[in-house]
Structures are given as C-alpha cells and as structure tokens.
Amino acid sequence: MTKYTLTKTFFYTLFFALFIISCKKEEVNNTDNQITTASEAIAQSESHPDSIKTDQAKESSPPVIQENGFYNALAIPKDKKKRDSVYAAFSKKYSEKERYAILALNRLDSKSKWNSDTLIVPAKIDTTLMAYSPFPLQLDVLNEVKKFVIFSYPIQAYAVYSNGVLVKWGPTSMGKKTAQTDRGLMFANWKKKLAISTVKSEWKLPYNFNIHNTHGIGWHQYDLPGYPASHSCLRLLMKDAIWLYSYADTWILNPGGATTKAKGTPVMVFGDYPWGKRKPWRKLLDDPNANNISVEEMTKIVQPHVEKMISEQSNREKVADSIKAAKASEAILKESEPAEN
C-alpha cells in the first residue's frame, strides 16, 4: 500500500470518528432537553392541587384518557382548538346521558363543562350514578324516617333516603367560602317553580325549595362550576331540582300564615370543604373509595337528630290527616245542603 493511500485512509477514519462523536453529543443533548421539559411540566402540574401530571412535551398531541383503573383521567387543554377537538371526541365516544353522568361526577353542568383541566371518567358508565355513590346504600338509623335529604360540604354532593334506603344522590354547588351554607338540621319550608334571587334580581332560580326562611337558603337549579360558588344556597342540576321539588314535603302553616303548624321534610347540611386543596372527587383517580362516607360516620352525624325528625314527621302526619278530614267533612256538608230553587 502506498504512503498516499495510507494517509487518505487515516483521514477518512478520523473524519468518520468525529462524525459519530458529534451525533452522540447531539442525541444526548436532545434527550436532556426532553427530560428537562417533562420535569418542568410535572413541576407545574404539581404546583396546582387540581392538576394531574401530564407530559407537556407531548402537548401538540390531543390529550387522551389515561387508563387508571376504576376511574380514568381526561386532560382538558387550555388551547381552544385542542379543547374543541377533545370535546368533539368526547361527544363521539359517549352518549348524551353518559356525558351528563361524567360531568355530574365532576360537579359540573353542560354550561360549565370545561371549567376544569381534568375530568374523572369511570371505566364503566352508570347513567343513574348509583354505582358511584359515596353515600351508604342503607342507613338503619333512618328506618323510621320516611323522607330525608342530606348535603355533604366535603364532597359537594347530596343524598336522599326513604326509610333508610338511598334512593338518589347527585352533585351540588354549595355556599362559597365567604357565604357558606348553614350547617345542621333544617326542614323544607315553601317552594316556588321560579324564584328571584334576593342578591340580584337578574338571577332566576328554577324549582326553588326554601329550607331556611330567615336566611333565605334553599335548593334550586343553577350553574354547577365544579366548586362551591353560591351565595349560601344549594345549587342543583335541573333534573335533580325538578325531582326534589316533587319529592320533598312543604311546611303547613296555621290560618293566616304567620306561624308554622307542621314542618316539612328534614334536611341536613354537614362538614367542611377543603378550601384551596385538591378537589375531593379528583382523589378517585388514586382511590375509587376516596369520597365514601361510612355507615358509622353517617350514623354519627344523623343519630342525634333522628328523634326530632320522627317527632316532626308524626306531627305533620296528624296535621295533614286533620286537614284532610276537615275538607272531607266540609264536602259532605255542602252535598247535604238543600239545592236552591
């Protein structure tokens, strides 16, 4: 081999070695950049108690449901186009009733559906919501109470019991931190299909049922934004407001309407909301039983008031029977009156 050939071979070998080293450095740099970007994204998500950990390095791709067992997470992007794309896929994948149930689990109505950066989505959809009830299905302590409605501040949800059996539950938005809903035992008073708010006359309150006449507290349909937002009232989805409007009993007033002769359905509000912390229903992603209220806990909350509830229930039945009997007697008297010539 000539000297010229050896020299040429040496330079080709050197050039190839330098090229390989350069490529390796570039690959390492790119990997480091990706790790840094992902780390920053996780740090940003952890800085907000309501965010899930997402890889922002892949933000150009539409977010997808993250498989997580009983509940999954659907990340909602801030960018409008991406958000619209997610909603289109969401609407295509789930029926109207299924979407309604998913939003209800996130304490949202359709108007406020994107008031969240993440939706919890059950792996299997039960449109009645009963499969996801955080309330016990049976409460023996309420066996003698025919109708009972209870609102939980901690999980922003209500439950309805008939003779100790859970017949319905759903989402609510209760009083915000500066205008919290009164706690304790109350009773349903009067109801009105369309009430006007005493805070702002522009606010219309469909299917309003008053439970605290002095403080003007009641349950009714209004926006569910995914957190406690009301001026002390108990906001409900329209379907729930209509259902409760028909279910609960009103008070019975004495002649003249100045005093109460009998109280309506017992209603209780209990607990405290974790202000400034992660929304309670987001914990379902880690533990599907995170929001569950045990029979023992519910019994402890309700039991001190059962005697009062049964007493008022008995009184109302007597008053209602008395009024019914009086009306029947009045009808008989009218029928027995001689007809006018």
TrEMBL record:
This is L,D-transpeptidase catalytic domain. The lineage of its organism: Bacteria, Pseudomonadati, Bacteroidota, Flavobacteriia, Flavobacteriales. Belongs to the YkuD family. Residues 41-63 are annotated as: Disordered. The active site is at residues 220, 233. SUPFAM superfamilies: L,D-transpeptidase catalytic domain-like. The keyword Cell wall biogenesis/degradation applies. Keywords: Cell shape, Cell wall biogenesis/degradation, Peptidoglycan synthesis, Transferase. Pathway: Cell wall biogenesis; peptidoglycan biosynthesis. It comes from the Bacteria. The keyword Cell wall biogenesis/degradation applies. Residues 147-270 form the L,D-TPase catalytic domain. InterPro entries: LD-transpeptidase, LD_TPept_cat_dom, Transpep_catalytic_dom.
